[in-house]
Amino acid sequence: MRILFITFLISLLFSGVNAFAGDILVLQSMRVKPFDDALAGFRSTCNGASRLIMVADTEGTDFVRMAQKERPELILAIGAEALNKVVNVSGIPVIYLMVLNPEKITGGGKNFVGVNMNIPPDKYLSLLEKLNLHRLKIGVFYDPAKSGNFMRTIRQTAGSRGIEITAREVRHSKEVPELLSEMKGSFDLFWMLPDTTVVTPETVEFLFLFSRQNRIPIISFAGKYLETGALASLEIDGFDLGKQAGEMATRILGGTAVSDIPKADARKAIMKVNRKIAAKLGVNLSSLDASTLQPVH
Q1: How does pLDDT run across 5-56, given as a tens digit for each residue?
Q2: Whether residue 65 is found in the same domain as residue 132
Q3: Rounded Cα–Cα distance for residues 1 and 7 (Å)
């Protein structure tokens, strides 16, 4: 009898090896600090039990099949690669994080919701007003396939504030240098969007060369470009982005339907200003908190 009982326990143990014991299956594209921060923010807000799988370490895994077998209450996808792995999952709520243009991946699936990486345009325009640059003509390049919706919001927001935007469509990164040359003199400040068609290692080099030669300040979406020569940046706060997703997850686990939870933009932005570039351009920084000023050498 004892042997039968032990055999039963062993069979239970091995039958449950692949079973998911928690409420949330977390797929993270790779281990990088912004993604780690987002996950930490999520876990600080959502108390559901979770299991983390690093997609980069699990080549060949069929995550759709895994989800169908394990049936977690919720899937959190951090990064575009993670979201792509579960885009065909149905019947399970999926929250996405740290994904540019997530709708291009999800195709409007009813079980998907998340936090957009784009910082609302009004935050950028408020920064320009603080720097007294809002009266300048602002140049923007964008790929309609990637940033068309965001560009429409920019135009609407800028128009309501009386801010002039000169925007040009870019469908291939090779078009950027020629477009800049053609538009020389038509804008006084360049707004760099997180658009992967426009912003590549090659185009960034050309953009900042153009900026230095023509004394055109650049406002960017990432602090790393301050060292390259950007005047200021507004970048997402990964931890707070994760908290936003955690709040969504808490509602879903509490019984709220995904369709009743609106998609959200990043609500918090980290502002940094390069005071060395500001001094060269004669930009007055007296209205800004000193903690935002980045000493770049």
Answers
A1: 344 333 433 333 343 445 899 999 999 999 999 999 999 999 889 999 999 8
A2: no
A3: 10
Residue 6 is assigned to a structural domain of this protein: no
Tokens of 44: 């600080």
Sequential DSSP letters for 158-210: HHHHT--EEEEE-SSTTHHHHHHHHHTTS-SEEE--S-TTT--HHHHHHHHHH
Q: What is the pTM of this model?
A: 0.79
Per-residue model confidence as pLDDT tens digits over 88-102: 999 999 999 999 889
Packing angle, helices 238-253 and 33-45, rounded to 10: 40
Closest CA to 128 of 210, 38, 213, 219: 219
pLDDT given for residue 22 in this prediction? 53
The answer on 131 and 89 residing in a single domain is no
Domains: count for the chain: 2
Q: HSE (CB half, 13 Å, CA atoms) of 140?
A: 27
Q: What amino acid is encoded at 278 in this protein?
A: A
State which residues form the domain around 146: 121-220
Residue 214 CA: distances (Å) to CA of 44, 141, 174, 268 = 46, 17, 21, 32
pLDDT at 174 over 70: yes
- For residues 224, 155, 150, 135, the Cα torsion angle rounded to the nearest 10 degrees is 10
Residue carrying the six token digits 């935002």: 292
